Amino acid sequence: MNNGVIKFLQEPKIMSTYSCVGSEEKKGPLGRLFNYYSEDNKFGKNTWEKSESEMQRIALFGAMQNAGIKDTGLDILLAGDLLNQCVGSSFGLSDYDIPYVGLYGACSTCALGLALGSCLISGGIAERVGTVTSSHFCSSERQFRFPLEYGGQRPPTAQWTVTGAGAFILGNKGRVSIPEAVFGKIKDMGIKDVNNMGAAMAPSCVETIKTYFRETDHSPEDFDMIITGDLGYEGSEILKELLLSEGIDIRKNHTDCGLLIYDIEAQDKHAGGSGCGCSASVISAHILKKLEACELRDVLFIGTGALMNSLTVCQGNSIPAISHLVRLKTEV
Amino acid sequence: MNNGVIKFLQEPKIMSTYSCVGSEEKKGPLGRLFNYYSEDNKFGKNTWEKSESEMQRIALFGAMQNAGIKDTGLDILLAGDLLNQCVGSSFGLSDYDIPYVGLYGACSTCALGLALGSCLISGGIAERVGTVTSSHFCSSERQFRFPLEYGGQRPPTAQWTVTGAGAFILGNKGRVSIPEAVFGKIKDMGIKDVNNMGAAMAPSCVETIKTYFRETDHSPEDFDMIITGDLGYEGSEILKELLLSEGIDIRKNHTDCGLLIYDIEAQDKHAGGSGCGCSASVISAHILKKLEACELRDVLFIGTGALMNSLTVCQGNSIPAISHLVRLKTEV
After folding, report:
1. Which residues from B are below 8 Å from A105, CB to CB?
2. C-alpha to C-alpha distance for A15 and A292, rounded to whole angstroms
3. What does the alpha-carbon distance between residue A77 and residue A212 come to, in Å, rounded to a whole number?
4. Do A47 and B315 touch (CB under 8 A)?
5. Which domains does chain B have, with CATH numbers?
């Protein structure tokens, strides 16, 4: 590790991936790219929590099938979600006979899993690692805000939690590799508005991106895309402005998973998508496919997470945030 | 990795540790061994959640001081707790300028952090890793059961969540090394009684211990101690019985962190202690000291966690559980 940037000597490869989403995501501009969707967002289950777990189960099953491997072919599973005590993951993956490590990184979880899985492969600890991440609009609303039946109103800066899951199998084969990663530091800049997560998370994203460019020879124009997940409209604007004031201009090649997954105006999604299933499904279904097709060749993906819970908000605390980075590169 | 057992080529060492506890733990048989305690369990804060976070901050500070290192001396921080969205850790450690990875393993978190930190060191990803774990009786009761003011009654199989935190610094120096680890698999045997966590967790502990003895040349008598954390009285009895039926007899050298931390009868603690701060503080203050003094030389520590939340219990689900193992060995 070089002042925060990890360069993998054995570059892990993404062997396969699989995504599932709900109906709103299916209707969005990336709709046809997702592997699986549920019209009623229930995935055949009778509670929203079980529906979210079922997405995790399906996503991992699909990714393992796409890689041509079974339970015994995976050394470790890394998984996380937004629910209390991460039950989306533990209930969803309990049928798999695979050593399990539970992660909590809020909406940064997809990047966290990819980064940590890469460490385990590069370090010779594991040969094949599965990572799974999910969020569900209905389970999240109930837990972080109001039950759906209440019909709570949302301000313009609010983001819409994506119903989605993405799974990735890391190993030694595949066109896309992960040559570098950065584990972020927790940043708390005093933002207390739980309906403006973008503003709470942007400063931690600035910190991680600054660390990456400071400790490597790269500059933003070296990358085909710098994609965050998920700052939404508000957070993305803050990120670009803050970075520009530090002399780092990512305006030309920045985008955000939360801005891609919905047709924001037509679907009335306010500041865009959020939830750790957002970046998981967008990276899985959209970005990775473009990398595999060489339409993109070198991408920085920064997952951004807000680390509060509903009680800390009620107690008047500000919102700490974290951003983890992975570089995704196509072998030409 | 050899069918689940990880043998570290570069054996990570425990450089230092630090523990803090509340008043009940201070009154218990290990009371004088803990580094820090708060008479009113508040640690100077005005909410139980902030008190728990403060324990994490103090524990890491103490461990770093004991190792003679500063923020910049740690490459990665691994931390977790029992609170929703792991806010005990993220709020407690947000002041540290250290890359942060959030874990969720319920009461297995201390073992999970030690195992994962060892992977990062042995794999050459990090030179020094901090791991921190906490639980607080008052924040846990409010979240998982009832507010304290309600005065809920507890059945005999219930365990008492420990108010405590433990931090460990892993690196290349120290008398105690971690030569092996096992990441557990999620096991759900259909137990639904949230007041009998021991029964819910014991089967996963059986699975992890079986894996260890099946894949290594060792048998239980090779170890000075096989310590679980935290099955309590009920879960420990089930563990020993289940293992015996599989031909593995750990009755002579088994103990449990939840049985050590309180004078269970005198302190009216029913089936013993629990909470991820239990094993973190007992391993830190008691077991590690005995290893450093060569009173113990080779110990298997298995952290056991129950992965439900209060909503999944209300929805009638059973309780999935997981157990992670680390071997702690004194260099003679």
Report:
1. 101-102
2. 11
3. 27
4. yes
5. 5-171 (3.40.47.40), 176-330 (3.40.47.40)
Terminal CA-CA length for chain A: 26
CA of B261: how far to CAs of A94, B33, B89, B281, in Å?
31, 11, 22, 9
CB contact under 8 A, B87 and A311: yes
CB contact under 8 A, A102 and B103: yes
The band of A212, judged by pLDDT with boundaries at 50, 70 and 90, is very high
Q: Are residues A86 and B104, on separate chains, in Cβ contact within 8 Å?
A: yes
Please tell me the distance from the alpha carbon of residue A324 to that of residue B195, in angstroms, as a whole number: 37
- The three-class DSSP label of residue B132 is strand
- In Å, how far is A158's CA from the nearest CA of chain B? 20
Using CB atoms within 10 Å of the CB of residue B32, give its burial: 0 to 12 exposed, 13 to 18 middle, 19+ buried: exposed
CA A128 to CA B3: how far, in whole Å? 12
Distance between alpha carbon B64 and the CA centroid of its chain, in Å? Answer: 19
Q: Which residue of B has its CA nearest to A208?
A: B99
Q: How far does B89 lie from chain A, in Å, by closest CA? A: 9
Determine the length of chain B.
332
| Residue B121: alpha-carbon gap to chain centroid | 20
Q: What is the distance between the alpha carbons of residues B311 and A189, in angstroms, rounded to a whole number? A: 32
Nearest to A185 among B98, B308, B310 (CB): B98
| CA-to-CA dists, residue B201 to B23, B140, B239, angstroms | 27, 18, 9
Residue pLDDT, tens place only, B3-56: 899 999 989 999 999 999 999 999 999 999 999 999 999 999 999 999 999 999
Asked if B103 and A101 come within 8 Å (Cβ–Cβ), the reply is yes
Alpha-carbon gap, residue A51 to A58, rounded angstroms: 10
Helices (H) then strands (E): counts for chain B: 11, 15
In chain B, the residue whose alpha carbon lies closest to the alpha carbon of A84 is B84
The predicted pLDDT at position B145 comes to: 86
> At a CB cut-off of 8 Å and minimum separation 6, what does B320 contact?
A90, A91, A94, B186, B187, B188, B306, B307, B308
- Residue of A1, A186, A212 best to disrupt the B interface, most CBs of B under 10 A: A186
Nearest to B184 among A75, A99, A119 (CB): A99
Terminal Cα-to-Cα distance of chain B (whole angstroms): 26
- Enter the pTM of the model: 0.98
Token match 């990062």: residue? B120
* Binary contact (A90, B320; C-beta < 8 A): yes
For residue A230 the two structure tokens come to 């998920």
B311/A99 Cβ within 8 A: no
pLDDT digit string, tens, across residues A1-17: 668 999 999 899 999 99
Contact B274, B133 (CB under 8 A): no
How far A33 CA sits from the closest chain B CA (Å)? Answer: 31
ipTM of the complex: 0.97
Q: How far is CA A30 from CA A16, A43, B329, in A?
A: 19, 20, 53
Do the Cβ atoms of B278 and B204 come closer than 8 Å? no
The distance of A145 to chain B (nearest Cα, Å) reads 14
Between A91, A186, A315, which is nearest B317 by CB? A91
Structure tokens at A31: 């709709």
Residues B133, B110 contacting (CB under 8 angstroms) = yes
A87 to B309: CB separation less than 8 angstroms, yes or no: yes
